[in-house]
Specification:
By secondary structure, the protein is α+β, with helices and mostly antiparallel strands. About 15% of the residues lie in helices and about 35% in strands. The chain has a domain of about 190 residues: Clam (outer membrane lipoprotein receptor (LolB), chain A). The protein is built from 5 helices and 12 strands. Strands 1, 2, 3, 4, 5, 6, 7, 8, 9, 10, 11 and 12 form a 12-stranded antiparallel β-sheet that branches.
Length: about 290
């Protein structure tokens, strides 16, 4: 592929090195803690329903701003990416500005527009004009853009919660800023989430099914009094392509977090027009295509 995202230079080349397998990580998401020795947990069915319903309730809020954090570990290398943006959950489109690591080779923040069909990136690779966008088809990304863009699409973050397993428990109540939220913990199943998600937003999960091995994915979800998702932490592990001289392919551990706030904000964003997309030059000697 022509585009090298910030993940490549950060030793987490999940898009370009080729993700050969994906799985749930057995490490608890950062910041997660059980209160009261399990005494605060409600019955599984009540907790499962609350978290699963959060997808519809949050969609009903129509839009929000978001803060994202993605922490990646590959061997001894730890990289943290942060972003801010906004999403329209009715039109299924959003935008993010992701801060690249200092050693990524990227001159400034990475601009992204996300849809269920494509990830558009600007300033994502040296050598590509800064005024041009690169389009990456979601069905061509092995992880379905759960981590490829340096942040999980917040819409996908809560849509995936439709696939929660029966091990979900209510940990307790906590403060998120000035608000009190209910903290749930459990695991989810991508196949189940895919089957319960509306067809028009199923693309990312359909792509992820090609490489995820079916292992449960740990998560922590925080819901407000209205039942809206305010924060979600999801823990992934990716088996990457083999390295020269290594007997086994390396595994990158990824913790993706999204915080949602300012619900109902006006989101004025649309996919880039064809004239604004980068088209790679044709290599010399390539036969011309016939209509």
């Amino acid at each position: 592929m022509l585009v090298r995202t910030v993940l490549t230079s950060a030793c987490c080349a999940l898009v370009l090195a080729g993700v050969t397998g994906c799985q749930g990580d057995d490490v608890q998401p950062q910041g997660a803690r059980v209160e009261g020795g399990g005494g605060a947990a409600s019955g599984p069915s009540e907790a499962v329903l609350a978290v699963r319903k959060a997808a519809d309730v949050t969609t009903g809020a129509k839009s929000s701003r978001t803060r994202t954090t993605m922490t990646m570990q590959n061997n001894d290398r730890v990289v943290k990416l942060t972003g801010q943006g906004m999403f329209d959950y009715v039109r299924h489109i959003g935008t993010l500005t992701v801060d690249a690591p200092k050693d990524s080779g990227i001159a400034g923040p990475l601009q992204e527009i996300l849809t269920p069909e494509a990830l558009y990136m600007k300033n994502g690779s040296p050598g590509i004009p800064k005024d041009k966008w690169v389009r990456l088809a979601i069905d061509g990304l092995a992880d379905g853009n759960l981590v490829s863009g340096g942040a999980t699409d917040p819409g996908t973050s809560f849509e995936i919660l439709r696939g929660v397993n029966d091990d979900v428990v209510l940990v307790g109540t906590e403060k998120l800023g000035t608000d009190t939220v209910r903290h749930y913990r459990g695991t989810l199943d991508i196949r189940k989430a895919h089957d319960l998600t509306a067809p028009e937003v199923r693309g990312p999960l359909a792509a992820a099914l090609k490489t995820f091995d079916g292992a449960p994915i740990p998560f922590d979800a925080y819901l407000d009094d209205a039942g809206r998702l305010r924060r979600v932490d999801e823990s992934f592990a990716f088996v990457m392509g083999p390295e020269v001289g290594k007997a086994a392919p390396p595994t990158a551990k990824v913790l993706s977090s999204a915080e949602l706030y300012d619900f109902g904000v006006v989101v004025d964003v649309k996919p880039p027009e064809a004239k604004d997309l980068y088209v790679a030059p044709t290599p010399p000697g390539t036969p011309a295509k016939r209509g």
